Amino acid sequence: MKVTLERNHLLKSLGHVHRVVERRNTYPILANVLIKASEDRLELRATDLDIEVTESVPAMVTTPGTTTVPAHTLYEIVRKLADGAEVKLETEGEQMLLTSGRSRFHLACLSPDSFPDLKSGSFGHTFSIPAAMLRELIERTQFAISTEETRYYLNGIYLHTIENSKTGLVLRAVATDGHRMARAETDAPEGSSGMPGIIVPKKTVGEVQKLLDGADGDVSVEVSDTKIRFTLGTVVLLSKLIEGTFPDYDRVTPKNNDKEMTVDRSSFATAVDRVSTIASERGGKAVKLSAREGQLELSVTNPDHGTASEELAVTFDTDGFEIGFNARYLLDIVGQIRSESAVFLFNDAGSPTLVKEEGDTKSLYVLMPMRV
């Protein structure tokens, strides 16, 4: 193999593919990136056996060929080369020579024959969705993904289509860790109708989120019962799905919360952050909300450090009401609110609370209370 290409093109592609490679691997080949030179393209591929990322980049190919080299090492070398430099890659037996200007690197190669191929199979559903729309679904829900390994079916975002009585068929994303739930939806793209409900793993969600950062245009999404494939420009991300049944989230979504409180989002977040400074981790970072007509008091009691309280003006016209929350979970949810005001819908101190944006019907959040 003998190929020449521009350093910035190579760096950008390596930046996309090398992230899926784990630092520690049982199989040495999984630490490598597959490099295939043919015609006027250089194809890069990396996998961890659950996710596979492929990207092609323009190159001047003198001699076609295929090899594999350590992914993170190659990325660091290219990252440290001069901006706009020309890079030459050439295989010499069991090594690859990388030259750029006066820099020369010899990298050990492993045979591409043993490089795993994450077979894609056939996809029953294909649709295109604007990158900004997919990014919005992910950003509004990914914070609530569970990291608890025993309930593995919560370790991702549940993506499915569902009929919304007000807006028609929608594509909905849901994530929960049992303490809070995030739900976001958008009009269902053409071709998504009838797709199976799938659970996209947390790592895959993170990689897709990075690919979508600053991206424009449409993303092609292909779905089967066991895999999902995202195509954005020259990048293709193929991932296994989580096998399992996502819980009936609709059952825990409050339907009869009639105590409504509207509060300035920014002031509320600042107040929660301030009073929770003295909250104890042992006590679950608990903050108590005491609402009465026109006013909300936030308070924290820590037997070891003392107490804190702060008052805010709110729109609330019900009799006195008290409820407690984990401060961090509360801040996570309020951080997703884009409108100036956040709307809280309560039932009683032991029931889930509904949080949403003022005037927005496409996203909502559920937060479980805690004893204070």
UniProtKB/TrEMBL annotation:
Residue intervals of the DNA polymerase III beta sliding clamp central domain: 129-248
SMART domains: POL3Bc
Keywords attached to this entry: Cytoplasm, DNA replication, DNA-binding, DNA-directed DNA polymerase, Nucleotidyltransferase, Transferase
Keyword match Transmembrane helix: no
Organism domain of life: Bacteria
Domain DNA polymerase III beta sliding clamp C-terminal span(s) in chain numbering: 251-371
Entry-linked InterPro entries: DNA_clamp_sf (IPR046938), DNA_polIII_beta (IPR001001), DNA_polIII_beta_C (IPR022635), DNA_polIII_beta_cen (IPR022637), DNA_polIII_beta_N (IPR022634)
Cell compartment(s), UniProt: Cytoplasm
DNA polymerase III beta sliding clamp N-terminal domain segment(s): 1-118
Homology family: Belongs to the beta sliding clamp family.
Subunit description: Forms a ring-shaped head-to-tail homodimer around DNA.
Chain's role: Confers DNA tethering and processivity to DNA polymerases and other proteins. Acts as a clamp, forming a ring around DNA (a reaction catalyzed by the clamp-loading complex) which diffuses in an ATP-independent manner freely and bidirectionally along dsDNA. Initially characterized for its ability to contact the catalytic subunit of DNA polymerase III (Pol III), a complex, multichain enzyme responsible for most of the replicative synthesis in bacteria; Pol III exhibits 3'-5' exonuclease proofreading activity.
Protein name, entry field: Beta sliding clamp
